[in-house]
Design goal:
Blueprint (H helix, E strand, L loop, with lengths): L3 E2 L28 H5 L7 H8 L1 H14 L7 H13 L4 H12 L9 H16 L6 E2 L8 E6 L6 H15 L4 E5 L5 H14 L2 E3 L7 H14 L4 E5 L7 H18 L6 E7 L5 H12 L4 E5 L9 H9 L3 E5 L7 E3 L2 H8 L4
Helix pairs in contact: 3-4, 4-5, 5-6, 6-13, 7-8, 9-10
Length: 349
Amino acid sequence: MVFWRKDKDRQDTVPEAAQAPAVVVTPVPVPEPAAAVEGDRPGETWVSRLGMGLAKSSAKLGTELTDLLTKRKLDQEMLDRLEEVLITADLGPKTAARIVADFAEGRFGKDIDEAEVKQALSDTIAKILIPVAKPLIIDKPENGPFVILICGVNGAGKTTTIGKLAHRWVREEGRRVTVAAADTFRAAAVQQLKVWVDRAGASFFSKDEGADAAAVAYEAYARAKAENADILIIDTAGRLQNKTNLMAELEKIMRVLKKHDENIPHAVLLVLDATTGQNAYSQVEVFTEITRVTGLVVTKLDGSAKGGVVVGLADRFGLPIHAVGVGEGINDLQAFDANQFAKSLTGLV
């Protein structure tokens, strides 16, 4: 399963090398990526991984549904309590109300059982998720790499997400990928990103600690183009405590990139940590205000009981969800499947 679409193979000419040598930061001891040390889990399918990853969320929701169904007939009291259950499962008030209204239609006053409730909830959740379950379309331009800007708060899982994306595109697609470290104020983070990128077999571009992020992005594009790269991934800072500075930095990155080509970046992916629950909503609001977010990647679904936030994000913002992560393994980031996610969240698989 993939979460991108390939462009047609092209024979691009290689321009003269850009005069922008990268400066590698002084190595800082960091733990190696779990996937690189432990490898993948070949005996498991993605469906089973997703089910295990959402186990905390589905167990929490399932327990509350079992406690709710103390009587068989669907009445207003049960609907009110069901709405509360969905809100506490981090779906958000608006989404919870929508699901309950859909569930009640044709069932009010009738006998129901737990299996019917779970199936109905799964079907309704899938309806919300299907429109946003879209692959990232990689369509390499004739005159340079396809540029992806990665944003998100520090700690959301940007580094591992970039590593896993690079691994797939290089190792499985045979793509030429360059990764640029434009979050220049955290030396350890830059070095850890380099570890992931080296493992993926991608090219890495960085400058001195504290270097101008826009300059890194600008020079990285020149280098990627000179090396005939197919994809350029640019990591960015996520220091929300100073929103004004972050906004200025991202705006500058976007502005200088357009000096190369008015159409770049081609995609802006926002990485969200599922363990933050409904705080993810405010992160989407902030970053969509700062830049043109084109899609979401939701990580760490295996680390909390807040998997329902994905449903709320889909309902509230309608942004494409390209992939979800359920672990540190190299293959634990996969395409977002709406039906499978809905079944796993409600405990049907």
